Model the fold of this input.
Amino acid sequence: MRFSTPSTPKPLVIVTPLGVSQIQEILSCAQIHGMQVRVRSGGHDYEGLSYVSPVPFVILDMINLRNISVDVENSFAWVQSGATLGELYYEIAEQSKTLGFPAGVCPTIGVGGHFSGGGYGTILRKYGLAADNVIDAHLIDVKGRFLDRKAMGEDLFWAIRGGGGASFGVIVAWKIKLVPVPSTVTVFTVNKNLEQNATKILHRWQYVADKFDKDLFIRVLLTGANSSQEGKKTVEAAFNSLYLGGKDKLLPLMQKSFPELGLVSEDCTEMSWIQSILYFAGFPSGQSLDVLLNRTLTVISYKAKSDYVENPIPEAGLEGIWQRFYEKEAESAVLILSPYGGENE
Done:
């Protein structure tokens, strides 16, 4: 548990229920004593706003409710809200090499907050958001009723998939549709700095990234860097990609749709889908899948904010952004650009 400042409101009590009946009792007790309830799944909210309150409150921590049941034959799974994405990915990979799930790249994210907030990842252009692939859920409402999709109705089921699940009740578990992934996928990270024409390449990327083949996802990570010219700064753009297929198909596709990047075979690495999860999470090659079961968050203090860009940023606008990277306050800044398109049109 972490709090932004010493004055951040803290809970009167933190409860870790073991099952549905205990959640129902917690909700009843909180109402009797005039306390609000905040539900914690993985604790990944950047500033802890999902588990603080200006009035007396109790935190309902779902850490003990993280069972995952995978049905390979019917391509679905039930996952409890306290599980992390890493635990979910691990269990899917244990059961199948050709099934996956379209969710985020950080394995310590709790599925409860992720699914109820939408949830995007590297295969969103092929399969949409995590919330798009939720097909049922078990929810306990403010009256303590245990509801599935049929009992809660389609309006509420729609709302919990993107509207913030804890706004409407406590979601105990989610039934998710697993999606087919090829036995071989391809990843690459190509770095370009300003001296290597990064501005024009990034400018072009904006016009094509949402129109690529649905099997191709290329995001861009922008950071400040030292220039080859002594004493000067530059900006580096890392074009970070997953392709659902082998590099024999990726290379001609890139040559046709984004030749400006100059991708070559040596830039590409073929692997399994589950290995790509480790790649995007930043783990070194050869890392055991067991690392996905580690729920420990690396505590780093930083400010983060997300927004949508509806129109391409002109080159002059990008050059203005570069100037911000040169400021002292932005020495460790990272700007991540993730394309939608595909199933998200």
